[in-house]
């Protein structure tokens, strides 16, 4: 994402930008801080950091254990903020994962007292609580108000306990928009399938999904049988995990999210059957 964000910074003058999202398993806090300060410098203060625990199903494939993701991320965010503030971090013995000894950022313009906003990618209860405790905002991978009815109270409670306010709740949605509703839904099927396959049973039950059918979807994905996946994913899965439909439908669903307490809607993949046309349609809604 580094080259892409640098190009965005070079060719815009007001758009905020950042990775969505990094993690402290595949990247170190020192490397993340260095990159974010560089991005913030070349964009004249428009950088925003999206950071999360990492995909715990992918990490083992990279020979990474993925242990203690919440504690690791909390520690990582602490060190990133200290480095971005210009501190020279001394070893204390209090850090389990990133007990730096003499680390300090040099050769880059620091963001100053305001710092760089940190948005925490969160889904589970512990990560949602961490987002409220340490994040300026959260990026919640969900597209349905039902999920935010569960998530937002956890964030707000942790935010209040930390003596903070003004947390920005971002809905990291899977959107598919087209003037033809059927085309929009068809384009959303593969994304809905992957989300359903990776979701725990309580989440599937919250949306009234058939656990047996989801197991079949997971099996078809494992075989790379996308034709079978298309036949297994129905309106229930699409409704639960995506925002798919005509511009009017998409706009109404975004408004429903805002009513549920979301303060920012992020449009994520697949966007639609024709990406360029879909971006134009989304631009009209915004």
Protein described:
The structure is a single chain. This protein has about 290 residues and is an alpha/beta fold. The protein has two domains: about 1-115, TIM Barrel, CATH 3.20.20; about 120-285, Luciferase-like domain (TIM Barrel), CATH 3.20.20.30. Helix content is about 50%, strand content about 15%. The chain has twelve helices and seven strands. The chain has helices at about 1-10, 30-40, 70-85, 125-135, 145-160, 180-195, 200-205, 210-220, 225-230, 235-240, 245-260, 275-285; strands spanning about 20-25, 50, 120, 135-140, 170-175, 245, 265-270. Strands 1, 2, 3, 4, 5, 6 and 7 form a seven-stranded parallel beta sheet that branches. Helix 2 (about 30-40) crosses helix 3 (about 70-85) and helix 4 (about 125-135) crosses helix 5. The radius of gyration is 20 Å and the shape is globular. The two termini are about 25 Å apart. The mean pLDDT is about 95.
The amount of beta strand, in percent, is 5-15%
Question: Superfamily at the CATH H level of the largest domain?
Answer: Luciferase-like domain
Regions with little confidence, pLDDT below 50 for 5+ residues: none
Please name the CATH topology of the largest domain: TIM Barrel
Total beta strand runs: 7
Task: Count the domains.
Answer: 2
Structural class: alpha/beta
- Amount of helix: 40-55%
Q: Shape from CA axes?
A: globular
Radius of gyration of CA atoms, rounded to a whole number: 20 Å
Distance between the termini: 25 Å
Total of DSSP H or I helical runs spanning 4+ residues: 12
Major beta sheet summary: 7 strands, parallel
Helix-strand sequence: HEHEHEHEHEHHHHHEHEH
CATH architecture of the largest domain: Alpha-Beta Barrel
Mean pLDDT: 94
CATH class of the largest domain, anyone?
A: Alpha Beta
């Amino acid at each position: 994402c580094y080259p892409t964000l640098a190009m965005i910074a070079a060719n815009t003058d007001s758009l905020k930008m950042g990775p969505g999202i990094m993690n402290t398993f595949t990247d170190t806090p020192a490397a993340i801080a260095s990159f974010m300060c560089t991005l913030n410098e070349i964009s004249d203060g428009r950088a925003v950091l999206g950071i999360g625990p990492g995909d715990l199903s992918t990490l083992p494939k990279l020979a990474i254990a993925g242990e203690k993701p919440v504690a690791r991320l909390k520690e990582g965010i602490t060190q990133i903020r200290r480095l971005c503030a210009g501190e020279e971090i001394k070893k204390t013995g209090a850090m389990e994962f990133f007990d730096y000894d003499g680390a300090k950022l040099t050769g880059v313009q620091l963001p100053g007292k305001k710092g760089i906003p940190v948005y925490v990618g969160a889904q589970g209860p512990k990560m949602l609580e961490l987002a409220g405790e340490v994040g300026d905002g959260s990026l919640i991978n969900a597209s349905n108000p039902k999920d935010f009815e569960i998530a937002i109270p956890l964030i707000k409670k942790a935010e209040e306990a930390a003596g903070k306010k003004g947390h920005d709740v971002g809905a990291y949605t899977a959107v598919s928009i087209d003037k033809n509703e059927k085309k929009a839904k068809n384009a959303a099927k593969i994304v809905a399938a992957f989300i359903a396959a990776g979701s725990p049973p309580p989440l599937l039950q919250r949306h009234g999904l058939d656990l047996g059918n989801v197991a079949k979807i997971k099996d078809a994905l494992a075989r790379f049988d996308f034709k079978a996946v298309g036949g297994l994913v129905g309106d229930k899965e699409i409704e639960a995990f995506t925002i798919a439909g005509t511009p009017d439908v998409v706009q109404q669903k975004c408004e429903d999210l805002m009513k549920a307490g979301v303060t920012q809607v992020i449009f994520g993949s697949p966007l639609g059957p024709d990406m360029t046309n879909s971006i134009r349609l989304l631009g009209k809604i915004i």
